[in-house]
Amino acid sequence: MDIKRSNKTLYSVLDLATVIEGQTPADSFANSLQLAKHVEKLGYTRYWFAEHHNMINVASSATAVLIGYIAGGTSTIRVGSGGIMLPNHSPLIVAEQFGTLESLYPGRIDLGLGRAPGTDQVTSMAIRGANFNAPHNFPKDVKKLQSLFSDDNWDSKVRAVPGEGLDIPIWILGSSTDSAHLAAAMGLPYAFASHFAPTYFREAISLYRENFQPSEYLDEPYVMACVNVVAGDTAAEAARLATSVQQFFMGVVTGRRKLLPPPVESMDNLWNIYEKEAVNQMLAYSFIGDQETIKAQMQDFLQQTQVNEVMATSHIYDQQARMRSYEIFAQALEAIEPIASKTT
């Protein structure tokens, strides 16, 4: 398993192929490729897409297809899923899809796995059909995937071609402590969705580290935290740009989703006190400001959490401002001295 360790914290990108007001999913995909090429030059480690369904402002539903599109348009950055929602797929289909991707783009594909459906119950029923009420065993299916990728599966009646014998890193994704226990028990790297589910982040990564069992895939715990980042050349510019992500999450809180809107001068007339509190709670791990502010915030975050890698997601309306935000974020992290006491 190719997990690159460093004294410095690695940084990566989570993309939802967010659909912007006035644009289409086709525009989102073009923006994603432009951003992927940009962050590859900036030294980002990986570029992941998240599987979601039935959301008008998220176009990353066909996750494996997008991974191939981005991998084909870049040359060095790792590309993967953050994640594939395993209840929606059979392990064999996932193994074949990612085996195909790894065969096309060797040494560059990651497979992050989640246990949630990535959508509402009605849509989940449409995805799973007659299997909707069938029991789903996430740990069992993860092990099945590992088996399908294994050289030892050569004499099985069911084989993943391509896929068998390929080294495709599997990550466990989570937003609760359940996933932490599983990642630890299986000796796999752990990525936490602190960008929208901050409540159990500290507890989960602590449980993961305390209970980690070395495996053939990983000898020490490896933690990645996903966070929201909106960086600007000035603090005022960043604060204004961040009103788009605040509106985005207000749609999540209220159930009234809409395409990613342009920034506004003030949110005061757009939300009430309860919506503001709920949005701010979900966005607890958000880093908003100019380079010096981001550097100070991240230095404190890294010192407290000791994570190995940070994955930034940035819901920014203007594509050029979004690209600039990732540039400033990389510069801020590069300016932070390595944390000597980092626990891996």
What is the total tally of β strands?
Answer: 9
The major β-sheet equals:
8 strands, parallel, barrel
Proportion of residues in helical segments = 40-55%
Q: Strands across the major sheet, in which order?
A: 1-2-3-4-5-6-7-9
Approximate shape: globular
Domain Luciferase-like: 22-307
Organism: Mucilaginibacter pocheonensis
Pfam families: Bac_luciferase
Protein name: Luciferase family oxidoreductase group 1
Summarize the helices and strands and which ones pair or pack.
Elements: E1 10-15, H1 25-42, E2 46-49, H2 63-73, E3 78-85, H3 91-104, E4 109-114, H4 121-128, H5 138-149, E5 170-174, H6 177-186, E6 190-192, H7 201-211, E7 223-231, H8 235-254, H9 273-282, E8 286-289, H10 291-305, E9 309-313, H11 319-334
Parallel strand pairs: 1-2, 1-9, 2-3, 3-4, 4-5, 5-6, 6-7, 7-8, 7-9
Helix pairs in contact: 1-2, 1-11, 2-3, 3-5, 6-7, 8-9, 10-11
Could you give a quick summary of the protein structure above?
This is Luciferase family oxidoreductase group 1. By secondary structure, the protein is α/β, with parallel strands linked by helices.
Mind explaining what this structure looks like?
There is one protein chain. The protein is of the alpha/beta class and 344 residues long. The chain has one domain (10-334): Luciferase-like domain (TIM Barrel, Alpha-Beta Barrel), CATH 3.20.20.30. The protein contains eleven helices and nine strands. The protein has an eight-stranded parallel β-barrel with strand order 1-2-3-4-5-6-7-9, surrounded by eight helices. Strand 6, helix 7 and strand 7 form a beta-alpha-beta unit. It is globular. The model has no long low-confidence stretch (mean pLDDT 93). To bacterial alkanal monooxygenase alpha and beta chains. Residues 22-307 form the Luciferase-like domain. InterPro entries: Bact_Lucif_Oxidored (IPR050766), CmoO-like (IPR019949), Luciferase-like_dom (IPR011251), Luciferase-like_sf (IPR036661).
